[in-house]
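Escalated from tier 1: flavin-adenine dinucleotide holo job.
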Amino acid sequence: MAVDDCGRQINPLLVQGQVHGGIAQGIGQAMVEGVEYSEDGQLLTATLMDYAMPLASELPVFELDHTITLTPVNPLGVKGVGEAGTIGSTPAVAAAVADALNVAHVDMPFKAEKLWKIIHQQ
Amino acid sequence: MSVPAAFDYHSAKSVDEAIALLQQYGDDAKVLAGGHSLIPSMKLRLAQPAHLVDLGKISGLSYIREESGAVAVGAMTTYTTIEHSDVLRRYFALLPEGVAMIGDQQVRNRGTIGGSIAHSDPAADLPGIVQALRADILVQGPNGVRTVKADDFFMGMFETALQPDEIVTEIRFAIPAARTGSAYMKLANKASHYAVTGCAAVVTLDGDGTCSSASVVITGASEKATRANAVEAALVGKKLDEATVAAATAHAADGLALLGDIHGSREYRAQMSAVMARRAILKAAERA
Ligand SMILES: Cc1cc2nc3c(=O)[nH]c(=O)nc-3n(C[C@H](O)[C@H](O)[C@H](O)COP(=O)(O)OP(=O)(O)OC[C@H]3O[C@@H](n4cnc5c(N)ncnc54)[C@H](O)[C@@H]3O)c2cc1C
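Tier 2 regenerated the structure:
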């Protein structure tokens, strides 16, 4: 569930699309995305065969809502919505993982092996 | 590097012509099937064949036929065709199930069973599956056709029993005994969807549910898909309940020269091999 405020919505469908994409990007950052180097400095995630991105098939259905607070600084009252979804989605996943594992903090991305190690050290 | 080195392209019209071209160009030639392993490695210039011999235009290398106690699958049959084959689904659940987990739809539309096994990628799915099914691999060369048992075909990382002038033409699966079930489970690399580790299992039960034969192969965890003999021995003669299967698979990765990389450490691969093996065997037993 995501609630955003971009001021006046000129095209609500585009707003929803931007929020969907932003949520996915934020979940990707939390769960799978990460640039990794070997000890001698070689990039190990140089292609999409090694650098994981979030896929639509792995994401839940999003429920969206909004408030509309017009900005006074332009005549239309519009604010940006590009990547707005990322602001909330990354910390929401991070908080859920920390809560589920009952730990204060886990470094992103939450790859399966990392979580497995935390679970089994407890 | 994202562009391959220059090469000559040959479209063979028959298997004999393809073999003749392989003989003519020797080490400078490579066979092209679906291209979904070969082309990426040419783009990275890990492979730089001067001649590509395309099997794509040869008619009669793509088929699934039930004949005399076996199902024969042509080497150029794509994953998508295998995934939707009723005859394969009926006899060998793990084969359509396993190919459905390969990469994405574009890869499955182009990639072929012959190409996958000829490539022997340690993280590929089919090498484990064809071994678990104890398939026969038909290989054609200048001196005719020979049959290689799947167990003898995979020699190492990107290494098979194929000679440079030989082509895989067919993979044959014996129709299983009654009360045989099979399953494939894999932990997929989140980026490519190749197996970090996977397990292909085939079990046969007798009248009272005792396991009379078991075939279990682990893929992804080490340099090649490898049969887990100790796991198989611990299953035969037993009822395959949760506790028995968990005990039999706890050390499924013992003896493997485990790989470790950013997608999974050695320790993680060992543990997940045990988990995949347990799940695959229980699922296979449930289907038997
Ligand atoms: C994005 C992506 C994701 C992938 N994910 C997976 C995955 O999850 N699991 C998986 O198992 N694979 C995966 N693959 C690899 C894919 O399955 C390839 O299709 C397969 O490894 C090779 O089959 P091919 O038909 O494409 O062969 P090609 O790439 O054309 O050939 C591969 C090699 O085999 C040789 N060869 C091909 N056919 C024959 C033959 N009949 N006789 C002798 N030699 C032959 C070629 O000379 C070459 O050396 C992925 C590939 C990509 C690009």
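The beta strands of chain A are 2-4, 64-66.
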